[in-house]
Amino acid sequence: MMKALSAIYPLVQGINLTKATGYIIRNDGFINHSQPLQGSFDSHVSMALSVIPEEQHERYLSFMNREALIEFWQSSRSAKTLVYREYDEANKLHWVETTLLHIDNPYDEDVLVISLSRTVDGQMNEEAALKASLEETSKQLQQRLYFSDLIDKTAPALIVVSYLDRKHDPYMVGNLPVSLG
């Protein structure tokens, strides 16, 4: 099962929030291999901050706030997910998704968590392209609606069609009367 899990999430960590300890279960193919195999929760967070852009530190620290996580899982069993940027070992910036899952502990009152992390560059690039496409489509639609509305308001008064042979009465196009005579 761990092999299947690590195919999707190359970085899998076990965390005891109550004792503020953690260990890496699997780290195959993740963008960073600098995390120690085990250590304190706070050192894990500090090490992660060293490869996360400074403008995202506050979000990451809020997400990984140990006391807030313990309180959250006292009343809920749902997962928590954060998508953020992280530098790899070659200093290239990637999108990373980390999901924290509460694990039931039948032995004592310690709050146990599994942390699953993976890069999501492809997904984020697709979402960015989709967002740009939707914004462009929305812009074009707004322009078309504006011009359509403008034509509906002004065209009937401006467009008078008359046959060149003068055998027929002139008429207007739009929502004005067809016959002027």
List its salient traits.
single chain; 181 residues; alpha+beta; six-stranded antiparallel beta sheet; two-stranded antiparallel ribbon; 8 strands; elongated
Write the element-wise H/E pattern from the N-terminal end onward. HEEEHHHEEEHEE
Q: Helical proportion?
A: 25-40%
Major sheet size, sense and barrel closure:
6 strands, antiparallel
- Beta-strand content: 25-35%
Radius of gyration: 30 Å
Kindly state the mean pLDDT as a whole number?
79
Major beta sheet, strand line-up: 3-2-1-6-5-4
Distance between the termini: 85 Å
Beta strand count: 8
Structural class: alpha+beta
Shape: elongated
| Number of continuous helical runs | 5
Contiguous low-pLDDT stretches (5 residues minimum) are 159-165, 176-181
Summary?
The protein is an alpha+beta fold. The protein is built from five helices and eight strands.
Structure explained in plain terms:
The protein has 181 residues and is α+β, with helices and mostly antiparallel strands. It is 39% helix and 26% strand. It contains five helices and eight strands; from the N terminus they run H-E-E-E-H-H-H-E-E-E-H-E-E. It has helices spanning 2-8, 41-49, 57-63, 66-75, 121-158; strands at 11-16, 21-27, 38-40, 80-87, 93-103, 112-119, 160-161, 171-172. The strands form two sheets. The protein has a six-stranded antiparallel β-sheet, with helices on both faces. The chain has a two-stranded antiparallel sheet with strand order 7-8. The longest helix has 38 residues, at 121-158.
